[in-house]
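User: For a benchmark we're assembling, each entry needs the component sequences followed by a predicted structure for the full assembly. Here are entry 17's components. Please fill in the structure.
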Amino acid sequence: MHKIWAVMRREFLEKVRTRAFIIGTVLFPVLMIGLTVLPILLDRRETEPKRVAIVDGASGDVGMKVTEALAAARREGDNGAARYSVVRVPARDRVESVRDSLVAITGVQQEGVEGLDGILVLTDESVDGGRIPYLGVNVGSMADMRKLETELQTTLRQERLRRAGIDVFIGMKASREVDVVAQKVTSGKLTGESGASSFMLAYIMGLVLYMTMLLYGVQVMNSVMEEKTNRIAEVLSSSVKPFEMMLGKVLGVGGVGLLQLSIWGGTAMLVTTYRAPLARLFGASPDALTAMKLPSVRPDLLAVFLIYFVLGFLLYAAAYAAVAAMCNSQQEAQQANTPVTLCIVAGFMAMFSLLNEPSGSLARTLSLIPVTAPFVVPVRYSLAPIPIPELLLSMAVTLAGVLFVVWVAGRIYRVGILMYGKRPKISELWRWVRS
Amino acid sequence: MYQNAIELHGISKRFAGHTAVRSLSLTVPRGGIYGLLGPNGAGKSTTIRMILSILLPDDGTVTLFGGEPASRDLSERIGYLPEERGLYPRMKVAEQLTFLGEAKGLPRKRARELTAQWLARLGIADWGGKKVQDLSKGMQQKVQFIGALLHEPELVILDEPFSGLDPVNSQVMRDVVVEIARGGGTVLFSTHIMEQAEKMCDRVAIIARGEKVVDGRLADIKSEAGGRHVALAFHRHQDVAARVLGDRSLVARVDDYGASAEAELAEGATSDQLLQALVGADVGISRFEVVEASLQSIFIAKVGTDAASAPAREDMAHA
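Assistant: Structure for entry 17:
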């Protein structure tokens, strides 16, 4: 026990002191805060209104109304600057030629030329059909297009009602959209989570599991490889049992992983808790940040997540350790680890398949396969409750799988760590395991 | 107090299609320096690994410290310097040594103290904070050496300890080894350099092709080999000398070392006759001494020159 502890501490301390760990640990939260704050800053910076020309080929005063509506549109936030600067170009019967001449000055940035950002083409046809052509430089921006659509929606809907002779007030009321306001219930209690946020949580958890298994699994592999190529393995194996060496290594790297995860998780929690002051710090309005709402993590979900993180990590780290033990060089190990990596990718993919049906038979089956369970079960649990017996069975099966893999890996490790030369064939590996 | 530090009872080890060690029995008594000699690929490293329980013998048993079955649980009492040296390149020297001590079962605090003591003793106290990768090869060897001895083991096993060492460092380590033996410890080291073994060992075993050729007290082995050896050196007419030494009625065997040679007198021939012949040949004798057989000549006589270049299975011996 003392020896496993010594191996573990060495591994942990050496890993934590590396530049890669420090940079990775610091960089991730910085990136996260950056990604939160940057859009706000950029949005604020962009006070120049979009210059939009409306090529008005429609009959009646639709064109005027659209122009007014766009001109009245305000930016979000406390400054409330105009979103668009609109010019209406009447173009009955010559829509195309006007449009083309305007295209020529769209997105042009030259002195003396007032370039346009976009052109909206209104014809009777487009107004009726509801398909309005927009030619612009910002068509790639989903947010811009959605805002434009919202503005047009209201104006055109009212116009259509008027044309059909229906009272606009009644018509608008009748055509109000329907939204299902989803709220999550877990074991008889309202959680106060929205459906979207529980999906977000599931997704983030899946991603974190996938990333950490892969990252730290490979770290275990490289660390075993280092011991083998530098021939430290032999000195150690005279005093420490190979199994203890492997276990200490896996636990050490696992500790590093947990430390990094908790630093990241802690930062994420701090950022969400203090997002209002944070936003003020950067001069944005607090409500600009409400869009970024991290769901609360229930303690039982956290427990399930941690249990499966530990199980999954042990399983994959042991597999990576065995791979490294039977290889002679980093390059060789990179090839030989493909089966293990594929299992992780398969587990990650499996999560997507059950986002739609978290309690389906596929999801239930995948929860009972040790290779996929560490990914599938936490995601499932975050989406829909899992009956306790099923959860316990899954844990038991996964634990059994972990113990089996660790045992096999330990056997391979024991022989492989001192074996130099040719990489063993499957049949030889089998002999190592049985010997 | 036990009598024998190591006892091997007919141990064998086979690797895919070749036998590295074949029913080898040896006894290494407590105290003193024991040399395990043999050409490359003779099975020295495999034997050592079986003593340390890194490998388990296919047949036979290994007992340590007067009859305890060998296992890693005894590793606290054993120090081991493997032939392939290995240290964590990015770890600091002192931390590395502390870790090696801990791996042997020392409490962390004690391992730290011993690390400081040893670094001071070998005069490299100021290297403790350096990373191993920044040290020269010789320095790394020293660190590795300390790593094997840090926990003050009663049995020290060194696999080719002096290979690749400069004379100064070699001497430092030799002094340490001798000191351990004087203090009642047991040192077993393997080498294929006979001069070294001859100077240091009380007892030796010569193995070749996985089998024991001879073992026992060095003095006994030498006297058994007989006193009919002559150490020679001359500085003229090498070809004429070669002809004299080639006379099978005078000389049974010659180990020619270039500037000097060792001749074994033939049956019935006397040293006087040989001296006479050489004087007559006018070879300019600078040395003529009747000596005990050197370990080198015993080794070659016992093992044969063919075994000195044993099958190149060193890679498998690592398996």
